[in-house]
Amino acid sequence: GDPAQVPPDHELRTAIALREALREVLLAHTGRAEPGAAAQDLAATRELDAIAARLPVRLEADAAGAVRPAPAGTGVEAGLAALLLIAAEAAATGTWTRLKVCGADDCRWAFYDRSPTRSGCWCSMAICGSRAKSRAFRRRSSIKAREPIQAGDLLPPCIAHKSPSKKVSGRLGWPRPGWRGLLRRAGGRRLPGARCRRAGSGGA
Q1: Cα distance between residue 54 and residue 203, in whole Å
Q2: I need a surface site. Which of 15, 33, 48, 146 has the fewest CB within 10 A?
Q3: Torsions phi, psi of 185, nearest 5?
Q4: 72 burial class (0-12, 13-18, 19+ CB within 10 angstroms)?
Q5: Residue 6 confidence (pLDDT)
């Protein structure tokens, strides 16, 4: 490329630092709960704040007379300021937490979570989501002994922190809730002191 268009080293370092800080902040939107995540999130927020304080921003009026912030000047720093202004607008409109980073370790692509529950973990369910679920299935299949599985075990990292639903519990082989599940666990025998009463009957 044209050497005249290559940014100075300090601007390149600022751009890389901003990219990585944004990546960590958006990764926090997935609700990750691995050890050290809170400290990483705090460090990313502080780095983002420090970079934002150095970027040039001004106020301008549009054709309708509405005043809004805009990047000041030109060049790399003005472009980075425009990027953070997009983030500010997303926060103001309530869509900031929908901006996330893919939970796949070999992807980490930023994406917009359009799911109704805002619980999306992957940039593409067909690619990254499918791979993560396949890996989780293979890990489950490799377990020979049937031992109790704790909440979050063998699940993709970006959803391991979520409370398992009945559907997930069934897939992992957890006992179903209620007396039927308890009887199955007891080998078909009624548990001591357990009583089953028919609806409307007066006896035990």
Answers
A1: 78
A2: 146
A3: -65, -30
A4: middle
A5: 78
